[in-house]
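ugh ok fine here u go
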Amino acid sequence: MAHEVPQGLGAPAGERAGRRSGTEDALRWASRNARILAPLLTLLCMVIFFSLATDVFLTTQNLQNVVTQIAPIAVAATGVTFVLLCAEIDLGIASVATFTGVLAAFFFVGETIDLGSWGIAVALLIAALIGAINGFLVAYVGIPSFMMTLAMLTIARGLSVFVSEGKPIFEVPPVLKSLGSVGSQVFGVPVIGLFALAVLLVGEFILSYTKFGRYVYMTGANREAAEMSGVSTRRVIMLSLVISGVTAGMTGLLFIGRLSSANPAAGEDLLISTIAAVVLGGTSLFGGEGGIRNTILGLLIFGVLSNGLNLLPNIPITFKQALQGIVLLAALLLNVFALRIERVRIRAD
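structure:
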């Protein structure tokens, strides 16, 4: 009597070995790319959940709102990515953004100094100067970036209040209003989102295809080894903080365009939102690992989460901020475990 052979047991040894090899290769690939796969999985789960939980999430108007909301954070996150890759930090981005926006509006109103729309360029140059001061004192004087940028946070915040006399300025350059308006669109995509995407792409090009980008990674991964290889790590750190100052200034300009006013008390959540978005994407706080692609994923996670929670009807509005923090913590834990798997696999290979 013929016995039926269970499926797979009768396969040739070579075929079974090939299947095992294919599975092992897939697992090895997944573990090596855990830095991207973990946030991508988090993003997909959130999109699926909010799509099922509410009928509004996937509408065109809501997706445009998501783009508009995360665009200023995306610009600031581009500069912060450079700084974190150098194993440094910039805590002053929110205050520098606010100060830049206040300056641009102050110059436009012209009660004391009338520069009109040229005030935008002057305000942005001042933001770059602040970044240069941060960079010089951190890289060449030796002040830890945490303390230096914390001091600059206080200075920029105080200057914002001083320039505006503690009051919002309700006149801003029309070009910024057009840039920040949800109604300004190209093929259905808000212009502010296209601007943010352009900044991200420039950052990606610099990090991936230029000598300076390679130096940024080398500085963050092993500063002593980079210096022994001839890299001027001080210059790299200084320029990274200048980039962070410029992108923070751009963010402040986008904010006053969106709000049609410059408020010295606005933008306090920008620091937490930006760093959370960058780290959520898988960029390491300890330098040398991550990049703009990771930052884009982190921005999408942060934007989808913030927007989706606001659409859920049965959650008290007073609890939504705490819930957002809980979900972000869970996502960060997933990233940490994924990165550990990635490092174990790399060492094993």
